[in-house]
Amino acid sequence: MPIQNSPYHAFAALLTNNGHNVSPAELHGLLLGRSCAGAGFDADSWLADAKELFQSENEISDNVRNALIGLQEMVKGELTGDDMTVVLLLPSDDASLTDRAAALGEWCQGFLSGFGLNYRGVDLSTEGQEVLQDLAAIAQVQDALEESDDGENDYMEVMEYLRVAPLLLFTETKKTAEPAPAKPSLH
């Protein structure tokens, strides 16, 4: 079955085999949320946040650590690159719409958690606030998608939105973190 070969399934198996009962979608959402909130790309703080999500006292195994750092490198490249889109870590199209919609909701919850725990900037623009409200709404409607062509279309539209929405927040929080250039005085 091709579903077994998806990056999502591989990541889920890695997490489960290491005793972490966490959805890869929620983990990826957490990483993107914290990155968009200005947490930076320090591996140790990301690993600490991931460990908190795992709710585990145990050390993170090397293979999980390497996968988490690899995931962070991928996200860093997407957020700081030129191609203006993010690849979401979600189940492949072979999975049922119900499973994909649930993962989409988990992704949104993870994103909101990561963003909320790390955002220290000033007030967001109206657009930025709307993105966060949209994510909160998407996290709630995951059960509303039904196995149908309309359900598939709705899912694809939401996915497309989520591939660009984080970039808006990342760009906005980066602006508030950078000091404004000094203006020459007119004396």
UniProtKB/TrEMBL annotation:
NCBIfam families in the cross-refs: PRK02166.1 (NF002562)
Protein name (record): UPF0149 protein GYN02_14070
Organism: Pseudomonas weihenstephanensis
Pfam family, one: UPF0149
Membership in a protein family: Belongs to the UPF0149 family.
Coiled-coil stretches noted in the UniProt entry, renumbered to this chain: none
Signal peptide range in chain numbering: none
Stored HAMAP family: UPF0149
InterPro entries xref list: YgfB-like, YgfB-like_sf
